[in-house]
Amino acid sequence: xxxxxxxxVNVDHVATVRQxxxxxxxxPVHAALQAEIAGADGITMHLREDRRHIQxxxxxxxxxxxxxxxxxxxxxxxxxxxxxxxIKPHDVCIVPESREELTTEGGLDVIANQxxxxxxxxxxxxxxxxxxxxxxxxxxQIETSARIGAPVIELHTGAYAESTNDTDRxxxxxxxxxxxxxxxxxxxxxxxxxxxxxxNVQRIAEIETINELNIGHSLIxxxxxxxxPEAVKEMKRLMVEARIWP
Length: 246
Ligand code: PXP
Description:
This protein is an alpha/beta fold. The chain has 11 helices and 8 strands. The structure holds pyridoxine-5'-phosphate.
C-alpha cells in the first residue's frame, strides 16, 4: 500500500497582509485553524529575525490551540532556538535567512555548519522537538544531515517550480526524485516545499518517498478568490490523487 501524503500549510502571508496596515486582521491564527478544519495536516509559521510577517504572539497563540501540529520555521540563531525551546512546537524547520531576500532563496549549507546544526538537533531532540533541515536536493547535504542526527529534511523545490521549460523541469524533478529516495534510504523523513502551486504539485506528490509538502503563497493567493478552506481542500485533493493513482 502507498504511503499517505501530508499537507503543511504556511500562513505567513496572512500575516504579511495584516502587517501592511499594522492592525489585528487578517489573523494568521484564525487562518491556521480554518486550514486545519479544511484538512491541513500541519501549520507552518516562519518567525523571521526582522518580524516582517509572523509575530511572536502568533506563535504563542497558535501553539496552545492547534489540533494538528505547529512547524516553526526559523534561522539557527540563539534567539530562535530559545523561542523553540520555550514554545515547544512539534517540528522546527531550519532555514538560511538573510534580511534582503524576498523569501527563503536557497537551501542550508549543512556541511559548512555541521557542528552548530548538530548541537541544535541534539537540543531539539532532548526537548522532544523534531528538527527538519531545509536543503537543496544534493546527496552530500543529505548524507551530512543524516550523520549529524537530523530526523527530517525538507527538499527545496524552488528550482523545479521556477523552471521555464520542460527540459529543465524534468531535470529538476529527477534530482528531487533521486534525492528523496536517497534520503529515505538513509532513514530520514523527507518533506518538500517552496514554489509549489496547483499546477505543479502533482509531479512532486507522486514521489512516494516524500512524506509532506509545505505550501504557502499559492494557497493564500487562491484563498483571496475562493476562501482558504476551499483552497486547502483542492490542494489536498490534487496531492492525494497524485499519490494514489499514477
Ligand atoms: N518550505 C520552506 C522551508 C519555506 O521557506 C517556504 C517559504 O516560506 C515554503 C516551504 C513555502 O513556500 P511557498 O510560499 O512558495 O509555497
